[in-house]
Amino acid sequence: MANLASNFLGIKSPNPFWLASAPPTDKEYNVERAFQAGWGGVVWKTLGEAGPPVVNVNGPRYGAIWGADRRLLGLNNIELITDRDLEINLQEIKAIKKRWPDRAVIVSLMVPCEEEPWKKILKRVEETEADGVELNFGCPHGMSERGMGAAVGQVPDYIEMVARWCKQHTRMPVIVKLTPNITDVRYPARAAKAGGADAVSLINTVSSITSVNLDSFSPEPSIDGKGSHGGYCGPAVKPIALNMVAEIARDAETAGMPISGIGGITTWRDAAEFMALGCGNVQVCTAAMTYGFKIVEEMIEGLSNWMDDKGHADLDAIIGRAVPNVTDWQYLNLNYVTKAKIDQDACIQCGRCHIACEDTSHQAITNMVDGLRKFEVIDAECVGCNLCVNVCPVENCITMEQISGTDPRTGKSAELPYSNWTEHPNNPSATKTAAE
Amino acid sequence: MAKAKSRDIRQGRLDPAQYLENFSDLHAPLGQHEATVEADRCYFCYDAPCMNACPTAIDIPLFIRQISTGNPKGAAQTILDQNIMGGMCARVCPTETLCEEVCVREVAEGKPVRIGLLQRFATDTLLAANPAHPFKRAPATGKRVAVIGAGPAGLSCAHRLAMHGHEVTIYEARAKSGGLNEHGIAAYKSTDDFAAREVAFILDIGGITIAQGQALGKDISIDQLSSEFDAVFVGMGLPGVHALGLQGDHADGCIDAVEYIETLRQSDDKSNLPVGRNVVVIGGGMTAIDVATQVKLLGAENVTICYRRGPEQMNASDYEQEVAQTHGVAIRHWLQPRKILTDANAVTGIELEYTAQNGTLTGTGEALTLAADQIFKAIGQSFDAGPLEGTGIDLDQGRIIVDENQKTSRDGVWAGGDCISGDEDLTVVAVEHGKLAAEDIHKTLMG
């Protein structure tokens, strides 16, 4: 059995699956249930300053988009940080940590961008014996209008400043949670590192409007006929998150900084992908909010089985394994030639590969062969783009195969050694090689 | 006497409530949620096999996509554009041998997208909204067309002609329009008077007059209509039925299945229908299945379909055979009727002979006797060529010959539906004939 024990910044948990700071971690009751279900840790829903708590809207706070059979693909929310009293939250955190000493309990924080409030709240959190704090510089809605959340996360200087304050005022590990609502995630990550943060976690939610009500012309979720942008999460944001994680993992300045991966993680496979791209652990929210806490059983079981199958003894054996393979486009091998191949036995003849290629791409798939409905790749036209693979409803029916010999499309050898754009004759700034 | 006791034919075999249950929808219509889930299963195939298999070439992927995007009325319009009887076809089409048989999901998983039920969902949604008629008439052309028969072919033809701005008069022999939709198909396929509602919907376009009680050869003739109208469409169906050709064919209890089905369809109180305890049905088509299943639903104890060939040769699809069987009907193959057993000119049983296919179908000489209170003859309907004699309309094997535009050998006369030769006797096929004929009539008249 693979060892799933996780050690993130010295914070130990029996598995790398934490619940992200969000509604599922707002109360002792929920967290108790989560730990009973098997979750390795939680990041407690964001606490604010002492005093009257924030208020939430009393109308709907979530919007969504769905795939076939109304499978939830993306969720957005306009909920603020915890609207419960700080003291009650702190008491509950303390009680939980005491009852579940083997689980990770991190506390998410968001207070005004001044040193004193941060100093104050850090002391209070330390009293709970929680394992660490996560600075919420990510929420794009509501709190950002008050100069917190994403409003901080969008200014690298502020990130660095607050991170530094926090490291000064607490012995606890400090994780900085990053917003994706920026142009280049490496800058806020570098700022977090410069401020002394122990780790970054990402992504927080993406600013979004999920839909518009075509009767009332209000954005959804609609509060009395008006809507406000919310934070988008769920399976739909996973590709955005994976890229941002990879950018930080392979950036020279931040390489090696621990990352807690967040963004649409729904299955063990998603988690493994985030970890392969450099995440020490993962945080989950939407999947739990869609299916309940029980999904962690599948995640634990699935990750463990995969690791056993592949001979990975522990998490260190997989963390960061894909990072060296993330590169810039300019370094991709232009002499790697593939063609689509359709398994005629698996083909159900829906013809989507044909029409996608015919209408929108390279006219490289037939719809008729010898008078019969048949979908075959025309190698002389196929550029190997993979669109047919992606639109085919049958998994593995169409595959991309590397070819040998001559590429019938270009008439050139398909067996030339690695060569990339930096050396290509069409590139005006190519480094001239001796052969040319 | 024993003979009186041996026959058991009764009305009201069931509790009154049981009749309602037995003759409700064979397949419950899809609800909104079911329709959405089912529509999501469609792959929106290129050059979709289902569409190619549909005799009326309904753009099935498009209408299913319209359902999935919350536009069932648009879906209905897509259906009706090609098939004005899309509502009835959704109920009676043997989809298992048409669109659903070639659905790529049938190929992939053995579970096709339930196209028929989705089509019903779309058309029912539109009709329930009681909208303005979804087709507009072109400006009046001043041309007049006569249509013989208010069945699927005639109504389809009339609707398309009216759409093109022509004036149509339909001559219908019966008191009610709809043809086999109204009089022929099993009651549980067309509940809530759907056939009549659909006729009303079609006529809603305007420009169509129906003259009821006008039979070809009796009240009207081809010559007369040809002289009075600019064009004539013949959609007279198959008014006759084949006889068994056995002694006892006319004995009490030896019943024409088509007639019985019609009576059943037209009776509001199904408990009035006389039903035997033991029933034998002779035939292998949809009529045999429909009568056997319905007689079983009326409370007959033993219902046996006897067909002279094997299951593969039956005109009724595997699925239809299954419907009968799951309702408790026994289907026996390789048996042909030899003698109707009677007592005092009333049916008491039937003697059948086993058959075998040795090049031709031959009797083996071995006999089987089945007790029967009723014997239903369902061995096919026949064309009545009488009214066409001397009209210059050529026939082939007793049915009208038409070209690819439904044109007969006589100028100015088109034909379609079951009365023509060389096509399947299905509602959906008749609708297509009517549509094709109307387009060709329009083209010819507007030249």
CATH architecture of the largest domain in chain A: Alpha-Beta Barrel
Helix content of chain A: 25-40%
By DSSP (H or I, 4+ residues per run), the number of helices of chain A equals 12
How many domain regions of chain A? 2
> What gross morphology of chain A would you assign?
globular
Gross morphology of chain B is: globular
Strand order of the largest sheet of chain B: 4-3-2-5-19
Number of discrete domains of chain B? 3
Characterise the protein shown here.
The complex is a heterodimer of chains A (436) and B (447). Chain A has 12 helices and 20 strands. Chain A has 436 residues and is of the alpha/beta class. Chain A folds into 2 domains: 6-325, Alpha-Beta Barrel (TIM Barrel), CATH 3.20.20; 329-423, Alpha-Beta Plaits, CATH 3.30.70. In chain A, α3 (115-126) packs across α5 (156-169), α5 runs parallel beside α6 (186-194) and α8 crosses α10. Chain B has 3 domains: 4-18 and 241-381, FAD/NAD(P)-binding domain, CATH 3.50.50; 40-129, Alpha-helical ferredoxin (Fumarate Reductase Iron-sulfur Protein, Chain B, domain 2, Orthogonal Bundle); 144-239 and 383-445, FAD/NAD(P)-binding domain (3-Layer(bba) Sandwich). In chain B, 36% of the residues lie in helices and 20% in strands. Chain B is globular. Classes of the chains: A alpha/beta (436), B alpha/beta (447). At the A-B interface, α11 of A face α3 and α9 of B.
Kindly list the characteristics that best describe this protein.
heterodimer, A: 436 residues, alpha/beta, TIM Barrel, Alpha-Beta Plaits, eight-stranded parallel β-barrel, four-stranded antiparallel β-sheet, 12 helices, 28% helix, globular, B: 447 residues, FAD/NAD(P)-binding domain, Fumarate Reductase Iron-sulfur Protein, Chain B, domain 2, five-stranded parallel β-sheet, 18 helices, 36% helix, 20% strand
Give a brief rundown of this model.
The complex is a heterodimer of chains A (436) and B (447). By secondary structure, chain A is α/β, with parallel strands linked by helices.
